[in-house]
Every structure is written in structure tokens, then in C-alpha cells.
From TrEMBL:
It comes from Succinivibrio dextrinosolvens. GO terms for molecular function: DNA-binding transcription factor activity; transcription cis-regulatory region binding. It comes from the Bacteria. The lineage of its organism: Bacteria, Pseudomonadati, Pseudomonadota, Gammaproteobacteria, Aeromonadales. This is Transcriptional regulator, LacI family. Residues 9-60 form the HTH lacI-type domain.
Amino acid sequence: MRNTRYKTHEIAKQAGVSPASVSRAINHPELLSGESLEKIRATMQTMGYDVNEIFQTDSKEIILINCPQGTNPFYEEVLDGVISSAECNGYYTLLNYTELDENNIEDFLKMLQIAKIKGLIALSQLSVEILNKINSFVPVVQCCEFNDQSSLPYVSIDDYMAAKNAVKYLIAAGRRKIAFLNGPRHYKYARERLRGFMDALTEEHIAVPDEWIMHVPQIDYQMADTLISRVLSDDHKPDAVFAASDVLAAAVVNRAVYSDLKVPEDLMVIGFDNISLCQIVRPALTSVNQPKHKLGYTACEMLHEKLKGKTLKVNEVLLSTELVLRGSTEHQ
């Protein structure tokens, strides 16, 4: 009923308050003192308004999703999963893009209180100290990125094995000159995928030049193109590239075509995440599929259990991945 037409000025005149106060009473009663709110309620009742219906409180609680890398298309389906679970369980969701650190955590905690946030899903790796501070205010579930030194629950994948298996596929296909285009070093996924990449090569006694291990400061197509163009313009070229993101892998495929290299004949390419971009690139991109929607959905279900005061049956959840084969590694 909050979209009903009210005679705001008449109510304000009879209650002896400003029209703005009447508007706040109807739309944001938490912003008024109890005395002012009660005066406006009483006035509206004498004027014939159904105050019980007008001032009914919304029982839905709010959970916050902290996602500093929100521009990365990988997170679209993860967020869809969170929202699907939240709607099923009767929560509103808010999205926050702040990269949390020691300099802004106190302001963030104040925001949690002011906005009456009931729980948090963290989509970036946070320090144990920051996680503990947030958890002292509201329950926290880590999703995708997580801090394994924390006792707080998480849902993610095994980045190490997913990367290792992808590189082993390239080796089994006869490729031994394999480069790696990775994400920012400070992310756990980047460190784990690098470890998987290196172990797969080491086990097969394959060396990799230092310049073939590249890190972009963020998941960005142009940055990836700049890095891979240097490698592909050299006389000593890789015959395969493993990329820690489909966005990065798309840059590799397009740069290879521009450099008159045939994909997959001259250069095999594997990406990571299996986002919709994989089927737009030509040739279509082989990629490690993450269960993106399920990651977000599971994280929100875990948070819901905690908000209901239940003990989680499993505190640490690792979902399965699979390599989806397409034209960048296979002849179609």
C-alpha cells in the first residue's frame, strides 16, 4: 500500500509536522523519532487512513554480497545463484563492490549496522582479521575465493586440480611448449592455478620460459592482448596457451588469428570458467567449466542455515569442474 496516493500536505498540517516528515513516516519510518511517527500515525487514523496496512513492516531481511570483481563476467551466474536462493528463502540482496581492507573495514561495519544487514557472502579472499571482524557483526560465508586459514564456511572449487587436468590434456594432445596467462597474483585462484600448471609440466619434465608465465593486474581483454601479442610475435612461440579466465583466453585466440596462426593446429587454447563468451569466439573456446550458479546458490543456502541458527552439516564445500572441449583444441 505504500504506493497509495496520500494527501501529504493535509496530513502534515493536521499533525503539525512538515510534509517531508509525513513522507518519511510512510516510506522510511526508521528515520523518524518514535514521538513524531506516533503523532503522524494518530493523525492519519483520525483522517480515515488504514494505518495498520500503511505502516506494516516488511518482514524480509537483507543479505549483502561483497563482490569487488563485479565487472568480471564470471560472476554474473554466481550472483544469479545467490539471488535465486535468497528469493526462495525470503531475503532481499544488496551488492557491494568495495575491496575491503584495514583502511575501510570500520566504515563497512558501520554500514552493515545502518543498513540492518543480516548476513554476508564474500566473493573475494579476505584476511582472517577482516573476516573475523565482519563475522562478529553478521554471519559470513565465503564463495569462490576463500581464506583457508579461516574457520568460516566456504564453497568453491579445487583450482589446483582443475588447472592441472587442463594442462595434462594439452600435454596428452602432444603440446610441450605451453604458456600460461594468469590473473592477479594476490588472488587465491591465480596462485592455485599456477601451482597446478607448474606441477603438470614438472611431472612430464617440461620446462617453461619465465616470459611465458604472464599475470594481468585484472581480468581485462586489452591487458591480456598486450601480453600475449609479445609472446606470439617472438620467433620461439608456444604451441598451446592455458588461460586462467575465458576473457583472457579469448584475447589469445583473437591475437593468434591476427598473427596468422591457426587455432588449434598451430596453437591450442584452453580458458577457464566456461562463460557464454566461449561460444562467441571463433573457433569456440575449450574451457574448464565451473558450476557458477551452483556456487552462488550453495553459498546462500549455507548462509540461510546459519541465519536460522542451524549447524552446517559441511563447513567446506568443493564443487566439481569439467573440461568442456570445443574448437580451440579440437578439430570441429
